[in-house]
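ok so i was messing around last nite and threw this chain in just to see what happens. nothing serious, just curious
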Amino acid sequence: MNTTTGSIVTRVYRDFRGVDFSNKNVSVYRSPNALNVWKNYKESLGKCIETRPDIELVDEFEGTIYGLFFYTVNNELHKIVHCENKLYDNGEVIFDEMNEQKSQSFIYNKILYIKDGLNYLQYDGDTLEEVEGYIPRTSISRMPSGGGEIYEDVNFLSDYRINSFCADGVSTEYFLDAKNIDNDYIPVVTVNGSVVDSFTVDYTNGKIIFSEAIDEPLTDGQDNVFIKFKKTVEGYKEKITKCTILTVFDNRVFFAGNPDYPNMLFHCSLDAPNYCSDLDYYTEGVDDSKIKALIAGNNALWVLKEPSQSNTTVFYHNPTTDSDYGKVYPNSHSSISTGCVATGINFNDDIVFFSDRGMEAISGDITTEQVLAHRSSLIDAKLLIEENYKNLILEEYEGYLLVIIDNKIYLADSRQKFTQNDHIEYEWYYWELSKKITSTQVKDGVLYLCAEDGIYTLTKKDTEIETVWTTPEDDYGYPYYQKTTNKKGATVCIDGEEVTVLVKTDNNKFEKIDKYKNKKGYIVFKIKKKKWKNIQLKLTSNKPIGISEITLLSYLGAYVKR
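result:
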């Protein structure tokens, strides 16, 4: 290494990778202070860092938007908006009793299902209604006196049940498989396919009394008496409707987040969002710590709980076939004890969640020991002091994971990773928007951002937006030598209408060098700074710009004075 006094040393900043807020020695390709830049892999192939698009209003709403869902049926697109207590379809109110908190949706068999922690709704594009629970046939092959076989489980979502009997030609009293049935409903009785009404009901004992005996079936042993009755179990329906978290896994919908059952996981039957058996639930751990996220990935359903004293915070469910119950999902406790304080997501097959230390990832699947790997070291210093950190929103967009907290967005780049302490971490970018974001959605490659005055898209290109890129405090690899800038100047390869260049040496403040306009391609600027140890450049603009390279030449001087 040439350390002769007067030698020229050159620093080239290129191949930019994002921000580093760790307050450690920042690499020359990262920035300790950057704002509203990213790599646009779709349009410019990520060749430079450039200003992000701006947001532009597409729909006005007054109040907090808790959910935005796009639903296409019969070749018609429905934009469903959950704003305050109302649900809108393409601007028209279709429901006004929504819960004022985050809502979720999924589509099954061309029907849109919406949950908000109070309602469980279905919409076919014309009619919105509460999900009508499937009515199970709980007993079959019953004799009038009882017995028979258990056929289907009671449905959390339905107060109704059906029993089927094989008439004996003698009995007039038929005993149901439940007592104290609801007396506000007259059972519906079908005999040999025809509805009959020649009976009375003993609601207390769960008994149907016919005026005369029912003939035996024409086919020996075939049920010919079907009785539909109502048996409300207090709190059953609410076990599902009060859930605030859902995900689809193995063709079933899994529900959690019920404040009355914080550590309970429920699921519907196969391909049946309206049938949740009263046996299909699991207790996640021995304590009541809350379930914070459900994530499908790595051949399992991952259940993430908040921190607890028992250190049982991460569970996984693997589909298993049981000889008696069919498909079941027994839970197993992973080897991870770090709790989830916000939420999580499957980010390109990376199971990640947010703890009180930042973004964590679960490495390993159900066949191996799970290991926790950190993913956000570069931004933790800033991310973890965000006031609304525990209510962050996650959205995938253009290969980035957007971590949205109010008007701040931290972007994890799936295409830029690095190894630190034997594990993979993401490169990050940082944005600040003009609006606080309450919910998000991506449709046809367009990012929709909901705020308290409407819905915006991240699509505006011709705009005024603050852009900042700052180089690290750089000693050129010669920490013990004084340096002096080359009077011939420095260069920046840039694409944009204008840019302001500032410089700072050692512990001084940033000084403006000049503001340059219409200098597409590159600009040359002169810096006259002597006897400095570290130097920093800052490029700012209120117009969209792209930066691909910065070059700075300096001379080595004598040793730094002590």
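not much to say yet. The two ends are 23 Å apart (CA to CA).
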